[in-house]
Amino acid sequence: MQDPQRLVPRNRIAIGLEVYAFSQRPPAEPYPLAYIKRMPERIVGFHVKDWNGKQAPSGTSDATTQTDLGEGVIDFHRIFSALEQPERYWFTVEREGSPDPNETMRKAYAYLANLHA
Prior knowledge:
The protein is an alpha/beta fold. The chain is built from four helices and five strands. Helix 2 links the parallel strand 1 (about 15-20) and strand 2 (about 45-50).
């Protein structure tokens, strides 16, 4: 991972950062925490999608490894509990290959709302 301080110079107030909160090989500490801890004032939102814990078969899309937010193995509670004011951020939800996109969004909204309740 690159040093977040080097990616966004502190003297450039107009730059906002949307943190990608998804990994199929999660490290001991999810990398979004590094950004939240070191430069929370630069973050404007998070791009989130959940992973079912399986690797996609060779030659297939990663969409087969995605699941509805909160039903997978990504520890979003650990990541987002580090936010002091979660209501100030945008959360962009993605799920490729959803069998029911409307239900996926309903679940994502409920999950994120309960995460910060």
